Amino acid sequence: MKNEGKINYKINSNVLKNYVETINSIKEPMNQIKKQLNQLSKPMKEELNNINTMSKAIKELTIKFPNEQSKIFIDTIKQIMNTNNGMLSTRMIEPLNINRQYLSIMEKNNDIERISRGIYLSPSAFEDSYFAFQQKYKKTIFSHMNALYFYDMTEEFPYNYTVTVPQNYHVNTINEKCDVFYVSDDIYEIGITEVETPNGNKVRAYDKERCICDIIRSKGRMDPEQVKYAIREYLKRKDKDLVKLSKYAKKLGIQEKVMDFVSMMY
Question: Which domain holds residue 105?
């Protein structure tokens, strides 16, 4: 008799990678994204194409193995987690129409661990608090001394999160967990980039030049010695960009103040 091995519900690695990167980059609520996906008459943006391609890959598996839907969904969740460094938010399965009951099944079977509301961790992965936090609060940008920690430009470990959010973004639980800076929409996106956490996951933070502007702009809420230290460390770096720093400072309305600080520290 032919020896039947374990059925493989493997999804193409590029499809998985594109899907995970897309979901991690989307800040809008998933109900809005799902609504856009249903508007088939309109041209589809690349990010929506990536979601649609992933959905089609899952559908093809359920057609090929009509009696294995539960196994396919659970295996898909595991593949998404592996692609996402062992972490998963419920947002990652919403546009795929995978019911959250499968997360409960996996949790009961010790295949995943719920580390906070809507965030799950693979047993083989290390918890990354920065990554998990931003998965939950999508519009937060790590900023000020917290962001400078990622660039090794601070003397002290940031025991509290410091984030910047749009001024109309009000989630009470954020204020309980970290130091929040509210800014107008016209300056919120200046200097956003991706950095790696100590655990190797990518999170959104402001770049070095935006951070320098922010700690000078908000120096009344900062430790003055840490502000001076960070600016000195920035000026020592070969990858500093004083032209960009001046450009940001002008957009933030603090060009003279920033240039005075930089001149003083040189």
Answer: 13-127
